[in-house]
Task: structure prediction
Amino acid sequence: MTLRKPQAFLKKDFLMETSYRFSFFLQFGGIFFSVVMFYFVSELIGSAPSVQQSLSRYGGNYFSFVLIGIAFSNFLSVGLGSFSSSIRGEQMMGTLEAMLVTPTRLSTIIISSSQWSFAFTSLRVGIYLLLGGLLFGVDFGDANVIPALAALLLTVIAFSSLGIISASFIMIFKRGDPIAWLISSTSTLVGGVFYPISILPDWLQKLSYLFPITYSLDAIRLSLLQGYGFANQEVTRDLAALVVFSVITLPVSLVIFRYAVRRAKKDGSLAYY
Amino acid sequence: MSETVIQTNNLTKEFTKLRGISSPRNFFDKVSFTAVRGINLTVSRGEIFGLLGPNGAGKTTLTKMLCTLILPSDGNATICGYDLARQQAQVKASIALISSEERSFYWRLSGRRNLEFFAALYGLSRRRTRQRIPEVLEIVGMSDAAERRFQEYSTGMKQRMALARGLLAEPDVFFMDEPTKGLDPVAVRNLHDFIRSQLTSRGKTVILATHDLVEAEEVCDRVGIMQGGRMKAEGKVSELAGDASLSDFFHNLIADPEKKS
Ligand SMILES: Nc1ncnc2c1ncn2[C@@H]1O[C@H](COP(=O)(O)OP(=O)(O)OP(=O)(O)O)[C@@H](O)[C@H]1O
Ligand SMILES: [Mg+2]
Result:
């Protein structure tokens, strides 16, 4: 397969996004505020022994812990939300039909439709880490980047599958997708974004093991903050869990999406909204 | 004997949906509406086939079915020998749809950027795209306006862009759903000339849905008149109408109370 079509999507979405100049820049402003806010939160609680003890797995520093949590959970929201929002956007604009008459595979269309969101999110996450490192003294000196990138790639695939399932809902019901909402709220609650899962009651910890974000954040924190690599059992366990999750959900999500498009073609509702 | 490009066999579309919230007690009852009924159509290579009929007759539904955008509920069809249901990829590679749906572009992008995007989706190489875009812009007379945002175009300019997009890939079959809607008379004439001199003379086949009976009379080799989802009449204009004009024939056919559905 060539990358010609995916690249065309990326370019088109980049041009569309940057045509709204104000909003484009505004999206960076929020990063600064949330980083500063969590800096003060960690000033408040970071030196408490109980906090440091709960975070010992990741080196004990709350600010660097939460920085990675909020930065990388951006991928969760993008993975879950961007497929459905771009499909809905194309449906509303009426461009979905125009795409579907071209000899382009459905999987190419759905996967390509979110590239820009992921590229933009990577940029934002980079800025989070940069701000944390440069202005607030988070130490990434020992970071082991390769396993973190592997975890990131698997994370993107895992979250995307969920996002494609959510897009399938939107395709048929046009609005009100329960899946994305449920997964995103539960993931934030139990996945260890703002606090380590070790402080959760036992049953919530068990629940957290069902969500890919738990493994993503664990692997990324272990490799970026502790410098662990593929030799570390915890890291490989996380990566293996993400692989299993992706291998199952990605094909399933594409099948569901194909079904959703079929349904819309049956109803003649490809251009409805 | 001429080669058959489009063949439909009892092609039918019945839309069904749940009654839903409009009648809560019968929420799960199905309501159905048959937009296209049992169409048997044969179109040969190089033909211009006109689809006529009043609003709601089923022209767009039929066209979209043949473009894989709507699934038939019954019957089947082949396009360039490919099965509509089972060989969608090959069907799509053989067709272009030019509709009057102006929403089908990215309004915030320029005409050229839109064409670049769709050229990629049609599988044109970068090189071919660079060659082809100026050509199609020239054909539709939009070379000078290509850099302007789509949202700034007038109705007719948008329609010209739809034509330009449909011409990008040079497939075998062109489905045109009211392609002259909003075009000025000169542009209409140019389109007609273009269809004859560049498309059908080169073995391309055109299905043209239109409300303009003069247009149909002038350019179409054969026409089909639809009403209530049925094909009420079909044939060469001269054979259908005899000595009368197509317009008279059309009005008589549609107004016939007995045949009205
Ligand atoms: N998705 C749909 N669901 C239910 N009914 C539909 C749907 N699409 C079209 N119809 C109905 O099918 C009939 C045929 O519609 P269609 O758009 O094919 O007509 P048309 O001949 O193209 O009309 P026009 O000349 O106005 O463009 C109409 O009564 C329309 O309401
Ligand atoms: Mg129509």
